[in-house]
Design a protein that fits this description.
The complex is a heterodimer. By secondary structure, chain A is an alpha+beta fold. Chain A has five helices and seven strands. In chain A, strands 1, 2, 3, 4, 5, 6 and 7 form a seven-stranded mixed beta sheet that branches.
């Protein structure tokens, strides 16, 4: 895997272009070249998309552990710490809640606060049903040299108090993905690493009978 | 590379097959039953990101986000895909609805036909894609809306970023209109070292009348000043709407529809003829 990442890094450094061509007559060849250079190659995209899915799934698993009071405190603290490591510094969680009566609420919190709050929720057990599908857009280069993408996922969240369901929602999440070069101190090498960034979550709250 | 797993093959071919069937039926815009399978189908059909909107518009990707192949293109020709990018609940396209508009319906058909005939595609990094962020700010203790217009800027040929282009909002309209009297700085006031400038500048509600005929306040600068001085406090983006003038001769408005239906996500909510360039377009935007 490390070798794969290093090779990808090398490929990126020489700015390979993607082969897809825009068909619009109004797009000049100069514009098309720019578009090609902004995006990563198909091979890179596949590799990063796979890693993105893994990171997002990892994050979701940490949420399950964090939110379940039945789990040992030490394990939940560890999950909080590890979940934060997945994120780029300063990442925020913005939650839009669509209530059963159609009202919309919006709250934004730094990721640290979001995770800490999740840990204090009153659920003894949390179940997150993941849909085995995700949409990940292509990676686009930012002026800082990092590559950016967004993954859209959908999940069903159920919070239990003992055996009773006390909260359930269907959440759609848009997760910002950042591919940055980090220095591996052990190998003394630079390599690409995927981080999660801001998350826009849209919850459709279900009424609990 | 190893052969794709059975599960992957099912996702790649079978699911789109079902979707093509569902989408091709008149029931497309109706609510499905609420099983997880249906919700997954809705998720796949939903235009989840604006990026996906452009890829589908360009007939570049299928419902799973994979590149389109000949089988997909045969089952779902571009004309059909573009039709499905419209909000199918728009009453203006339903002849049985009292709000039906034959003009709008014809315009929609003309647009699709123009795009297909000229093989127009959207350049997803075009400066003619304007994102309007409808933001909530607090002004004098009360929530207000400021519309910020952002466009993409190519930096150094190989990277891209969104930049603020302009702003609009009632709280940025700092001048009042009053045509009951003529306001001006007198023609000979230069000889008195513009003593009457004091009177002009004390007329704070109508300062624009003392500026040149073509004076237009720069509302983005004003917004920056309000933020910097603490006059307004930024809260969050309430909604994003895209205005696309990248297709020659046309304007498209795209917004997100959060509904539990196949026809959901980022959809075309309005269309019109357009000949304006970006600045003129934003200036005239209601």
């Amino acid at each position: 895997m490390l070798k794969k990442i290093l090779i990808t890094g090398l490929i990126l450094s020489v700015n390979l272009w993607v082969t897809g061509q825009e068909t619009k007559t109004a797009v000049t060849s100069k514009q098309a070249k720019i578009i090609d250079e902004i995006n990563l190659s198909a091979t890179d995209i596949e590799l990063f998309k796979e890693q993105t899915k893994q990171k997002v799934e990892e994050f979701q698993q940490y949420i399950v552990t964090l939110g379940s009071k039945d789990e040992p405190q030490e394990k939940r603290n560890m999950a909080e710490k590890e979940a934060l490591k997945l994120f780029y510094k300063g990442a925020e969680m913005e939650i839009t809640t669509i209530l059963p009566d159609g009202m919309v609420q919006k709250v934004s919190r730094p990721m640290e606060k979001y995770l800490a709050r999740l840990k204090s929720l009153p659920y003894t057990k949390v179940i997150i049903k993941f849909y085995d599908i995700a949409y990940i857009r292509e990676f686009t280069k930012g002026p800082d040299g990092k590559y950016y993408s967004t993954a859209t996922i959908i999940q069903e969240f159920t919070g239990f108090s003992n055996d009773d369901i006390i909260y359930t929602d269907i959440t759609k999440k848009e997760v910002e993905i950042i591919v940055d070069i980090v220095e591996d101190k052990f190998y003394k090498e630079k390599r690409w690493k995927i981080f999660l960034g801001d998350i826009k979550a849209t919850e459709t709250r279900m009424s609990v009978s | 590379m190893s052969a794709p797993s059975f599960k992957k093959r099912v996702t790649r071919y079978f699911v789109p097959g079902i979707l093509i069937f569902l989408i091709s039926t008149p029931l497309f815009s109706q609510i499905l039953t609420d099983s997880q399978k249906d919700r997954e189908n809705i998720f796949i059909a939903r235009i989840k990101q604006f990026n996906e909107f452009t890829d589908r518009f360009n007939h570049k990707s299928d419902f799973n986000g994979n590149p389109t192949d000949s089988a997909f293109r045969a089952a779902m020709p571009r004309e059909k895909i573009i039709t499905l990018l419209f909000d199918l609940k728009d009453p203006r396209i339903h002849p049985a609805d009292s709000r039906y508009s034959a003009d709008y319906f014809r315009m929609k058909e003309a647009f699709i036909s123009d795009v297909i005939r000229n093989k127009f595609s959207l350049n997803k990094y075009s400066p003619d894609i304007i994102a309007e962020a409808r933001t909530r700010v607090i002004y004098k203790g009360k929530p207000q809306q400021v519309r910020l217009f952002l466009i993409q800027e190519i930096v150094g040929n190989n990277s891209v970023k969104w930049v603020l282009n302009s702003a609009k909002g009632d709280i940025l309209n700092i001048f009042k209109t009053d045509t009951s009297m003529v306001r001006f700085i007198s023609p000979t006031s230069n000889e008195t070292d513009f003593i009457n400038l004091r009177r002009a500048l004390e007329d704070t509600e109508h300062l624009q009348y003392y500026a040149t005929q073509d004076f237009e306040p720069d509302l983005l600068t004003l917004f920056f000043y309000f933020i910097k001085s603490g006059i307004i406090k930024y809260e969050y983006v309430e909604e994003v709407v895209y205005h696309i003038i990248d297709i020659p001769g046309w304007y498209l408005k795209v917004k997100e529809f959060n509904r539990n239906e196949l026809n959901s996500g980022w959809l075309i909510t309005d269309i019109a003829r357009n000949d304006y360039g970006i600045n003129e377009f934003i200036r005239n935007l209601k």
